[in-house]
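[job 4471] stage=fold_predict status=RUNNING
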Amino acid sequence: MKISEEQLKELVLRVLGELERKADNANHPGQKLYMLCMSPWSDRYMEFLREMETSDQYEIVPVIPSSWKDMGYEARLMETKACSHILHRSCEKPADLETAITVMPVVPRDVLVKTALCISDTYETSWISECMDKGSRVVLLRSGLARFSGKEKPAYRNRVMNYYRQILEYGVEICSVDEFTYESPGHSPAGETASGNDTQHPDTKKKRVISSSNVEQFASGGVIFLQQGDIVTDLAKDRAKFLNIVFK
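[job 4471] inference complete, writing structure tokens
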């Protein structure tokens, strides 16, 4: 079949257009990730974005107070390669929360408590509540949790720990950035092949990080068989205990 010069030109342009679209998608291939920020400013927001700069799995959108624009914080966030664009908290919540991930690098204790008690009277707790309703993923970074002073009464400390356990039961994840990126789509559990068969030589196995969010993934018949070098987080132990899963 003969192709005229005009048809060939149209075909080439169509192919080039398709290649450009694929290239654009390659630059922004990832799942939407909302970094939920709250006042006052914390350098932990910048730290999280910098740690995510090497990952192309997410389109990261910081959700910030409108006042941060005049204070210069919005410009700082936009300087990082990981930041896609900015969403102000004064805007309506996005329509894609169901398929997106929400990460909070800073977690005040009142947010933790209200989430555990299903109270949604602030912007961030109503955001988390909506994520719960939609079944979307919510991640609280361990480095951003409020620390105990060591002077608390045991009853108070135990109550706060119960709140942690409660939100874990809701499916909220508490982990480090390393654990979060390790558990991302496309990353097979270390020591396993893509088919799920453990065929690597023992000396070449990488350690597994077992966190609260993947306890059930590693469990088989109510048991998680630990391998040499495995790391089990404290919250993973709490979740396993709640689910009657034992480590061996």
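[job 4471] summary: The two ends are 68 Å apart (CA to CA).
[job 4471] exit 0
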